[in-house]
Amino acid sequence: MMHTAVHREDLNKALETLKNGGLILYPTDTIWGIGCDATNPEAVEKVFALKGREQDKSLIVLLHNDNQLASYVNDIPEVAYELIEYTEKPLTIVYSNAKNLALNVVAPDGSIGIRIVRHPFCEQLLQRFRKPIVSTSANISGEVSPSCFEDISEHIKTRVDYIVEYGQHEKGDGKSSTVMKLDPSGKFDFLRK
Fold first, then answer.
1. What is residue 3's predicted lDDT score, i.e. its pLDDT?
2. What is residue 175's predicted lDDT score, i.e. its pLDDT?
């Protein structure tokens, strides 16, 4: 699939919004997401409010490189790096013992879902932001996840602080990532295939 070039202005506006604790609507390697600074509890609070989502449901965060994992997870089983390296599809791994993230991003049991993203816009955004970014589907909690930009409701579009221009006309496949839970011993279970 041909990806268009990322425009600097688009990237800068998204970055500014994140730095100011705002919400962005942006394309990811799976579906369009609502994003914010995953280390800023007030920003995370806005995501829950917008989605009408219960606070005890944790959110997924995105990073662009697996060497950043150690900054946000206490014990990373060695197998995690192999899983990330060899996965063909977008893979979200739920790790135990999250750290250095907003407390309201993390699940009540201390776990966090993290995905290393391969996507032209996300990678550049994450590289420049240098912090993890929340990604949650751009819908009201309980409603169907939008598979492309056109499917996102006006309710969501009018309540975020910046809508990324990149990728608005691309048809995503609308598939969510595979999700697996990985405990510190290296044992894993699929939560969503």
1. 59
2. 81
Question: Residue 79 in contact with residue 180, Cβ under 8 Å?
Answer: no
Minimal CA–CA distance to 97: which of 192, 190, 181?
181
Query: Can you give the pLDDT at residue 99?
Result: 97
CA triple 193-171-155, angle to 5 deg:
90
DSSP 102: -
Eight-state DSSP code of residue 106: S
Q: What is the bridge-based pairing of β-strands 91-95 and 112-116?
A: antiparallel
Residue 115 to residue 105: CA distance in whole angstroms:
14
What pTM was estimated for this model as a whole? 0.93
* Alpha-helical regions (H) of 33-97: 41-51, 79-86
CA separation for the pair 47, 43 (Å, rounded): 7
Whole-number Å distance between alpha carbons of 28 and 16: 18
Q: How confident is the model at residue 138 (pLDDT cuts 50, 70, 90)?
A: very high
